[in-house]
Write a structure and sequence with these properties.
about 625 residues; about 25% helix; D-Maltodextrin-Binding Protein, domain 2; five-stranded antiparallel β-sheet; five-stranded mixed β-sheet; alpha+beta; 19 helices; Dipeptide-binding Protein, domain 3; single chain
């Protein structure tokens, strides 16, 4: 439950895009939105999804799996602690109730010309860091330069921002090296602002601080929280800044209500869940269907001391999938990758392991108007014809559909089709061999180790492996600890792994580091698959430089269709709800944001309920 998107975080922290053609001018805006006008006018008092009078106080204790060795979220190095976004404010803040919309926070207003060649922010004079020092234009300029230096992903993300300079009293202007990129004002608005004086200073030992490295020294931030305690690898505790500079702004009113937010780390979920049941953790985000259905038959749930709830969320479904490492030669042939998808028996997994609660994901932009469907027509077809010679012919002739195993006969038919594709790709059984494994012309078996960093998907993966082995694929599973998993992911030391790609309703520059050729060789980048496809690079540019919403939708559908027909992933499933379980001492507004339950951001601690709960548990 991060506060702001930090580029050092996961690829699921997806970036808002721009689309304000009707607002493109040198006018001063309090907010930017891609999808129509912002919901709230400049003189709004508070968001309607908060309780503006929510009490401050209490504690929230949460679970995290794995470990950490750094509390610097901006560096490429190290394994970061959870929730570090609580420490930092950005120039603008998102609204979890509106698609691709953000409001001024550190800035008073934002302005950009009609050609999107630059963006200017006027800083609020009252903006302060947690040490009381003012946030200045120099801090903003430093923040851009430092984050680009510290993290390759940030460098790639902000690569079109070529200059930041002071252009007036408390005004900073960012100049771009291109025109017509409608997203750039928005992604600059997401820039987390860091204190230059802190990062260019020395620590308690007199050692110069290094934003490119790891650290366990609690930093100076700009947000509503600061770090109270750090137990490396085991726990981190944040405390609310009582004189937080933005607490009374309309964009912050009624938010960040807990005095303390702590995160305790466990090696695996089972130990964490047992701790939650004892009351030493307060909230549990349940993402395992089996546990949601079967693990809550204990007294605290039955007597109402623990609340078990789910909330529908209206947002683009992420593409969760097994992803191929295209850097491995055995996956270069698209027929091999398609065969792996044909062997994935979603219907069996959904019935036996997921309680038929999920829907198979059919798009990189599922549950939105950006999803490709049917056959391409109109502007989408025109865009695809520009790269026709470089993309699979099925893009134009066949609607993409995942295989369906509605019956045993359908499953056998899909496996036969998979075997045929593997044979066409040169993977055959050797009649002289004592095993039934597939081999290429050189005698190498078709190996596929699936790498996981948690046992959460172990049962699902083992079910999948049994199907792959029927085809003669030398398929294995490796579950490693979180630190090793991060190292192997960062260096692309895997055959197949699990990944999830979150999207906004207005995709843009982030597509470059998801699928762009330039990002494929960047260690630790988001192009996990290693895609180097000139046609996809061209389609990404069509998305980024779309002139209006209609063109953006058409270009995104074209990109979606080409990604799907290249069979880069074996799609999993999605679920349009957030499931949460918590001890009955927390409350939330009558209306929650439509796109996230935002527990940390808008819920609060109920002293009376907590006292009643404590008395009941002591009896």
């Amino acid at each position: 439950m991060p506060r702001h998107s930090l580029l050092a975080g996961t690829a699921a922290a997806v970036l808002l895009a721009s689309g304000c053609a009707t607002l493109a001018s040198d006018a001063k805006h309090h907010a930017l939105s891609l999808v129509g006008a912002p919901k709230y006018a400049a003189d709004f008092k508070h968001f309607d999804w908060v309780n503006p009078n929510a009490p401050k106080g209490g504690a929230l204790r949460q679970f995290a799996e794995g470990s950490f060795d750094s509390i610097n979220p901006f560096s490429f190095k190290g394994q970061k602690a959870s929730d570090l976004g609580l420490l930092y404010d950005a120039l603008m803040v998102d609204s979890p109730d509106e698609a691709s919309t953000q409001y001024c926070l550190i800035c008073e207003w934002v302005s950009y010309p009609a050609d999107f060649s630059s963006v200017t922010f006027k800083l609020r004079p009252e903006a302060r860091f947690s040490d009381g020092k003012p946030i200045t234009v120099e801090d903003v300029i430093y923040s851009l330069e430092a984050q680009k230096k510290a993290n390759r992903q940030a460098e790639h993300y902000y690569k079109n921002v070529v200059k930041a300079e002071k252009t007036g009293d408390n005004e900073v202007t960012f100049t771009f090296d291109t025109k017509g990129n409608r997203e750039l004002p928005h992604i600059v608005g997401q820039l987390n602002v860091l204190p230059k004086h802190y990062w260019e200073g020395k620590d308690a030992n007199g050692t110069p601080r290094d934003i490119t490295g790891t650290t366990l020294e609690p930093p100076v931030g700009s947000g509503a929280y600061r770090i109270k305690d750090v137990a490396p690898g085991r726990a981190i505790t944040y405390e609310r800044v009582p004189d937080y500079w933005a607490k009374d702004l309309p964009v912050m009113r009624g938010q960040w209500n807990f005095d303390l937010i702590s995160v305790d780390y466990f090696r695996e979920r089972t130990a964490g869940f047992e701790t939650f049941k004892t009351g030493r953790l307060d909230v549990w985000n349940e993402n395992v269907a089996k546990d949601w259905m079967t693990a809550y038959d204990f007294p605290a749930v039955k007597n109402g001391q623990i609340k078990k709830e789910r909330y529908e969320v209206d947002r683009v479904a992420p593409m969760q999938a097994f992803v191929f490492n295209m850097r491995r030669p055995q996956f270069h042939d698209a027929r091999v990758r398609q065969a792996f998808n044909l062997a994935f028996d979603f219907e069996h997994i959904n019935k036996q392991l997921l309680y038929n609660m999920y829907v198979r994901t059919e798009s990189f932009f599922d549950h939105s108007e950006l999803k490709a469907s049917g056959l391409p027509t109109g502007r989408e077809l025109e865009i695809l014809k520009e790269v026709q010679a470089e993309i699979p012919p099925e893009v134009f002739t066949t609607e993409y559909k995942n295989p369906v195993n509605a019956s045993p006969e359908a499953r056998r038919a899909n496996l036969r089709k998979a075997a045929h594709l593997l044979d066409q790709a040169g993977w055959k059984r050797d009649p002289k061999a004592t095993d039934t494994l597939l081999r290429d012309a050189s005698g190498q078996t078709l190996k596929a180790e699936i790498l996981l960093g948690s046992p959460t998907f172990e049962r699902h993966t083992l079910t999948y492996l049994s199907e792959l082995k029927l085809l003669g694929i030398d398929a294995t599973l490796r579950v490693v600890d979180s630190a090793q998993y991060q190292r192997r992911r960062r260096t692309y030391d895997f055959d197949i792994t699990f990944a999830a790609f979150g999207q906004s309703e207005s995709p843009g520059n982030e597509q470059r580091y998801f699928w762009g050729s330039a990002a494929a060789d960047q260690e630790g980048g988001a192009n996990t698959i290693g895609i180097k496809n000139p046609a996809i690079d061209k389609l990404i540019d069509r998305v980024i430089f779309a002139k209006d919403r209609a063109e953006l939708v058409a270009a995104t559908k074209a990109l979606d269709r080409v990604l799907l027909w290249n069979h880069y992933v074996v799609p999993h499933w999605h679920y349009p709800y957030e499931r949460i379980v918590y001890w009955d001492k927390y409350r939330h507004p009558d209306k929650l944001p439509s796109r996230a339950i935002s527990f940390e951001r808008v819920w609060w601690y109920d002293d009376a309920a907590a006292k009643k709960l404590g008395e009941a548990r002591s009896q």
